[in-house]
Amino acid sequence: MKRAARERVVHALCAIALPLALMEPAAAAQVSLGSATATFCQINFPIADALDGDFNASTGWAVDPQQGNDQTAVVKAGADIGGLDATRLAFRLNMSWGASHTIGRFRLSATTSPRTTYGLGAACGDATPGGTAVWNVLSPQQLLSQNGQTLTVQPDGSVLASGGNPLSDEVAFVATTSLRGITGFRLEVLADPSFPVNGPGRASNGNFVLTELLLDARTLPSIPTLETWALALTALMLMLSAVGLLRRRRG
Ligand SMILES: [Ca+2]
Question: How far is the CA of 9 from the centre of ligand 1 (A)?
């Protein structure tokens, strides 16, 4: 290959590589989930126990004797989440109590509203945990039941469990969002006629125990925009012009 042709190839590769080099690398981090409030907590099963990092089956959130009703919990993130084009949110709902105390139907949402707009009531008796915050229902790209439940997304964005009814389970819920500056999350557990006593749990008494709620957030690489490509090509053309000028001066 002649020198001029080789230079053209190198320049073309540079034009491709530069925008790629500007892409942000992916990074993953366990999200610190802080203070939480819920509409109701069973005695000795407060919402805080689902966020204490303890997987002991007796440390979780449950709702007996309020089965048959929807319940809501909100939890604030320790730091804002989401600053690039997209963020991958990977939730784990660990339910280790046994006797099929798993959540039968739930919906997850996120908010970018200030922390002062929600979760302002009693930890276990907050009538309106969602407050005045704007909540965005998260749509899962991945849903996985560790112990074989069938998980189906409903028209309202909730996830309905059916089929096999294991004694315990851990459900993975993965969503990608473009929200920036997420301050907190809302977990709704919803009654459904397909469960004993209408749920929202799948135990024989309609109860559940959420042993732990965990979240991992990963920033996704932003795809170079047309503006980025244009900027890169402009920089390359300026560089080539400068090189050509130097050569002409030497010649
Ligand atoms: Ca726990």
Answer: 58
Task: Measure CA of the first residue to CA of the last residue in the chain; give whole Å.
Answer: 23
CA 233 to mean position of chain CA atoms: 36
Interval between CA 29 and ligand 1 midpoint (Å): 20
218 vs 68: CA distance, rounded Å: 36
| CA 167 – ligand 1 centroid, Å | 17
Q: How far apart are CA 69 and CA 249, in angstroms?
A: 83
Q: For every residue of 132-147, which 3-state class applies, written as one string?
A: CCCCEECCEEEEEECC
pLDDT tens digit sequence for 125-175: 999 999 999 999 999 999 999 999 999 999 999 999 999 999 999 999 999
Q: What is the DSSP letter of 110?
A: E
**What CA–CA distance (Å, rounded) separates 72 from 65?**
15
pLDDT digits (tens, 9 = 90+) for 44-101: 999 999 999 999 988 999 999 999 999 999 999 999 999 877 999 999 999 999 999 9
Residue 50 CA to ligand 1 centre (angstroms): 4
What is the 56 CA–ligand 1 centroid distance (Å)? Answer: 6
Rounded to whole angstroms, what are the CA distances from 19 to 153, 225, 243? 37, 9, 21
Q: Peptide bond before 200: cis, by omega within 30 degrees of 0? A: yes
Q: Select from 2, 152, 185, 187 the least CA-distant residue to 81.
A: 185
Of the candidates 197, 156, 152, the residue with the CA atom closest to the CA atom of residue 171? 152
